[in-house]
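All the exercises in this workshop are built on plain-text protein records. Sequence and backbone structure share a record, each on its own labelled line. The question running through the whole workshop is how a given chain folds. The record below serves as our worked example for the rest of this section.
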Amino acid sequence: MPAEPLDPVALRVAARSQRKSMGRLTRLVRASMSLVWQAGPRSFVALASLQVVSAIALALQVLAVQWVLSAVLADDLRADFSSVLAPVTLLAVLSATGAVAGALQSQLQRLLGEMVARTMWTRVLRVATGVDLRHFESPEFYDHLNRVQTNAVARPYQVTQGVLSMAGAGAAGVGLSIALASVSPLLLVLVLVGGVPLLLTSRRESRLEFAFSVGQTPVLRERAYLAMIQTGREEAQEVRAFGLGSWLGERFDALYDRYLGDLRRHAVRRTLLSLVGQLGSAVVLGGTLLFLVWLVARGTIDVAGAGAAIIAIRMLASQVQSVFRGVQLIFESGLFLDDLDAFLAMGAPALEGTSGPQAPSGFDTIRVDDVRFRYPGAEVEALRGIDLEVHAGEIVALVGENGSGKTTLAKLLAGLYRPDGGRIEWDGTDTTTFAPASLRERVSVTFQDFVRYAFSATENITVGRAGAESSPDEVRAAARAAGAEQLLDDLPQGFATRLSRLFTGGTDLSGGQWQRVALARSFFRDAPLVILDEPTAALDPRAEHELFATLRDVLDGRTALFISHRFSTVRGADRIFVLEGGRVVEQGTHAELMSARGLYADLYRLQADTDVAGGPAQA
């Protein structure tokens, strides 16, 4: 069974246990730099080079300022004004160099940030589409996914920004330190000490930010859901029909007010911490400047040296703060990166799913032996000892009341879930021994709540075998088998028409027309086992009759298992399995089950009576 995502309490405990060790700092830096290098090596090299250029230009500006001051204060300035031209020109060139390098850095950072984001999105989406389906039954998984989407995706680049900031500040700091130490080594020590208060408060700020993000994830998810309901096309008609606009808006506002209140309190706490660190740093800086004034008063430093020292102190203090801010950013992002690593680790089983023996291209018998299954968090098993056999070429029906386990059993047969107990065998081989991906390739599933892709009609059909080469004739054959060929030909651009009004030039289909497209998708997959969950729920009686009248010809020897609440559609099945409470309680042909006068017969007569009294009954 897949590991459950960490809950918020566990995440906060893990965050508090993290220590700012040099080993952890090294690991975070190495991992993030590797990722950024993979995303855009040329941009990374260019950005790092600009950092070095900016650092050198900044350090040289201190020397240029001292040169300018010395020239200005020289006794012969009036006699020889040209002596100041060289240092002033150098200072201007250095300032311009720093400004240009800064502008280029800004654009490169934007580009590299998008490259990293793309790399991370690719990894996250690969996990989201590959993890075990059980994860999607867990609210904790959705919280984890939301945190990764809103926070962790951008964090690797933020770590790299912190590293580059530290590197640039460090390079500039070396030159500034040399210049300042030449004036007074004690001044250098005092400036470096000024960064200690920031270091002491940064760890607490990092933990506060991560705890806030974890705590707010459910609120942000629900807020996004409420926004989706109010803006979604599918929901728009019911929102208006029931007059839900004001009610949903009030719920949305209440959630936003709650979030803003929490954000204000969080911002105040972070601001107070930052204020403590900045005030401590400012006190040390003030003491440093007073010490410099004392040196000037004693005549230890001349005016030009003092001017250069003041600039060096201010610049170096800024660089020291940049270093510590970079450290804070790295450790703060590190908490989110650990969360991201835990999410990406869920994808490991999905990658393993491509290894192992391949499922056979066909079968003679599928046997379900004492299969049990429970959904995450459920108290009752959805399947409680299912036993049945399906033979190649058969058309088999699953019937039963809502909650009896029909769809769950279909998902297990399709390889979307693994049983908690018992076995599903293909010709005596346990299907869990097959590579999961290969097993799913041998099954074609059309669910009742199939997806209506905002793609072209052709693409809506070919997603049944996505990535495989296909010809227009194959697509048409699948559409024809589902009774959808003519309706798709009649669209404005035929099979090339986009089936959604969300995009320009698109159109939409009725529920019954969409169901035909979904069936065409399933037939196009051309798998030995076809599973159809309520395949005619949206079809009119004539279309339903036509579909089942030709189903054997369409299947062409393939095995079909279909779920239906319409008993008129299951009469022609080779065998019917009746489920109740997660168990198979009856099986046989329609005639055999009617003769047995059991649950099937009761349900059949009940529906027949309803049909006569009030038209077709649908569950």
